[in-house]
Amino acid sequence: MKILKKFLPLFLFFGIYLGLGVYYNDFYAVSPVILAFGALIFAVVYFKDSINKNIDHVLKGASNDKILTMCFIFFLSGVFSYITKEIGSVDYLVALILNNVTPSILFIAIFIVSCLISFALGTSVGTIVTLAPLLPGLANGNIEVLALLSGCLLGGSMFGDNLSIISDTTIAVTQTMGVRMLDKFKANGLIALTASLITCFLIYLNQPDFNVEIKNNIDHNFWVVLPYLAIIILALCNLHVLIVLTLSCLLAAFIALFQGIEFLALSKLMFEGMQSTFEIALLSLLIGGLAYLIEKNKGFEAIIELISKNQKQSIAIASILIMVIFINMAVANNTIALLICGSIAKQISERFHLEKVRIASFLDIFSCITQGFIPYGAQVLILLTLINQKISFTQLASKSYYLIVLLLISILYLVFFMNKNDKRLAKTV
Predict the structure, then answer these.
(1) Hey, which end of the chain has fewer CB within 10 Å, N or C?
(2) Cα Rg for the chain, rounded, in angstroms?
(3) What is the tens place of the pLDDT at every residue in 338-351?
């Protein structure tokens, strides 16, 4: 009851978001920004301090350097994605790989291509929109083939959503947890890559026999992928993420101008990229303000106090992961779930002396797995729509080998290796 009172504005947000999603049969019909703003107004009036003082808390939470950094990262990520798409980077990658693929490795190729594109773009939805229209033609009416191709695409798209340093989820979890993106990448990378290798093996064992002619035209030169290489190399140089993104955007813009795109058109394109991230940036500001207001009214303390009744670290870790899964299922958006859970998970990690980098990694992993397996999530809905609903959600989920393997490996790691590797990680981070 104590936690319910402390988190009532947040539960109000969940309840209305879930209710409207069910009512309209579309969890993206009403912008979460509007609902979060309404929950924030309610919180300002609801909590016991004066309205003026509560407003001050909201403004302080929204202006937190981590929240503002997150917003700038979102803006630059949007600019980068839009420019690289315009100069043909994604089309080049798809054509380059598929033109060198035989039917015997087509399924693995689709998985690898979707992994690379989602890692480069930092978005699962963008990857699905890019590749899903190709799948019905490749399947040539074979439902079994289409189901496996779709499962490969869904898994590969969630690979980058989880691992990319410009992904919304990575940005959200690293900034709210207060860890560096490169450290999170190192902690996350081994698990994700291991799951990917096992997935390729499973795909090869379970692929049906069929023949198809694959041909994509390559209309661009290799240098259109240089911005992607730059963002990876610069990130590994341990530069600040804003510097990495700014330099990569400038390189992409230079290539666009070299291709003959006019400066005025380029400037409009860059602004459209920023606009594409306005909703998540505004949501970050609102959730940041709401979270700080709840924190000042000892909401986080109530959760930590409840978990502290059992002094085991395993209980604390399980509580964090259950929380992000539950919230993700409620709001059908893993970025929102991480924005809400990040600050709470950070305090629980500090209270129980958990390695924050590792916790941030598993928060992102479990939120992405949940997002991939909920039938009302954007990724699943868009994918099924673009292949004309030719397979069911059950068929899609059963062929999403990467998500299944990632879940199993993550659980095994948590049970058998978490404590041992945290000590090693603490020495290197």
Answers:
(1) N
(2) 22
(3) 888 888 888 888 88
